[in-house]
Amino acid sequence: MDKIITTDQLRKKLVQHEPVFILDVRPTEQRQEWHIAGSQHLDAYKRLNAGDNTVLDEIELPEDTTVVTVCAAGRISMIASDVLRTKGFNAVSLEGGMKAWNYAWNTAELQFQNGPKIIQVRRVAKGCLSYVVGSGSDAIVIDASLDPQIYLGMAAENGWRIKYVTDTHIHADYVSRTRELSKASGAKHVLLDRTKVNYEFTPISAGSSLSVGEATFEFIHTPGHTLESASLKINDLALLTGDTLFIDSVGRPDLKADPDLVIQKSKSLYRSLKGLLTMNPSIFVLPAHTSKAILFDAKIIGAPLSNVRNNVSLLGASEEEFVSFTSSRVPPPPPNYQTIASLNKEGSYEGHTLADLEAGANRCAIS
Questions:
Q1: What is the pLDDT of residues 286-324, one digit of tens each?
Q2: What is the pLDDT of residue 1?
Q3: What is the pLDDT of residues 313-367, one digit of tens each?
């Protein structure tokens, strides 16, 4: 019997809704940082590491379902699965632990009548959301955060050629794969013209548009989270808001900024959000992140703008209230955010191990 299960094997089981019981044995503080959606938790790490196997008697497990044990990197979970097998359970350890699960993904789709098809590609633990939007025979990929072959495969399955790739901003919580995807696909790499990176790209000015099949993508400058942040409006049907606006919060303005710049960015964010709120209330907001572990339920993470306006109370604040709140209620910065932002500016991660750099949840929203 196999002793391990790979990220891709577990991912496929969850996509196909096969019964599995996922047991997270990490310390509570690690569990609170990020986890596999739907998993159960038992803080067993220290006792297992000390050789106390009785800790696993403290949780009731199914006898007729595969039990997948999970830890940070796969060592303690292997001990847990070995112990469970001696007790008669069909138990396997997740190879590479949460560090490997960081790259597990699933999708959800949004199809507009007589409009483009939007595939939301979700890194289920980290909450990164990227998009493949296709119309006719062409597609554009926004905020790529996974191996380029994943996006190329989706395009091929739908009969699309990737015509453009872009990022809504210079990310600080994961290494963008957009430039790499541009090279692999031959797609034109487009960025808002005020984006400051150390590689060549095709600049586009705020208010200008790209055509992908019958779909039109208007680039809107929405500074605040970062100075170059952009949102993309698709045919007045959908709005890709990057890290400017989430369905339950707004972007943080403090990263890579001194106190004075934080205030300036907060004011810019306020104005950017006010501009977005003037749009059609039925336009569908699709953000670049969610702060929750993502289920394998194929449900799109997004909402009509009217719903977002009602859900995010901060959108009704005055500028003074907004700036005070967003400049004081920021969560801890993402791990390695300065290194990640620097790599994204350079357009290369050569010499770095992405799994080490990107481990941990994203922290892009105001808490």
A1: 999 999 999 999 999 999 999 999 999 999 999 999 999
A2: 56
A3: 999 999 999 999 998 887 888 889 999 999 999 999 999 999 999 998 888 888 7
Domain ranges of the chain: 4-100, 104-358
Kindly list the distances between the CA atom of residue 124 and the CA atoms of 113, 211, 306, in Å, as whole numbers in the listed order.
28, 30, 26
Question: Considering 5, 20, 48, 71, which one is annotated as catalytic?
Answer: 71
Among 135, 31, 16, residue whose Cα is nearest residue 361: 31
Topology of domain 104-358, per CATH?
Answer: Metallo-beta-lactamase; Chain A (3.60.15)
The topology under which CATH files domain 4-100 is Oxidized Rhodanese; domain 1 (3.40.250)
Cα gap 16→190, rounded to integer Å? 36
- C-alpha span between 184 and 148 (Å, rounded): 7
- Segment 105-114 shows an average pLDDT of 95
The residue ranges of DSSP E strands in 176-330, in sequence order, are 188-192, 202-204, 209-212, 215-221, 230-234, 238-242, 284-287, 303-304
d(CA 306, CA 281): 5
Nearest C-alpha neighbor of 179 from the set 197, 206, 192, 161: 197
Q: Specify whether the CB–CB gap between 165 and 181 falls below 8 A.
A: yes
pLDDT at 130 over 70: yes
Q: Would you tell me how many other CB atoms lie within 10 Å of the CB of residue 20?
A: 19
Q: Cα-flanking dihedrals φ and ψ of residue 94, to 5°?
A: -75, 115
pLDDT one-digit tens code per residue, 241-274: 999 999 999 999 988 778 888 899 999 999 999 9
Whether 128 is catalytic: no
Tell me the longest C-alpha to C-alpha distance in the chain.
64
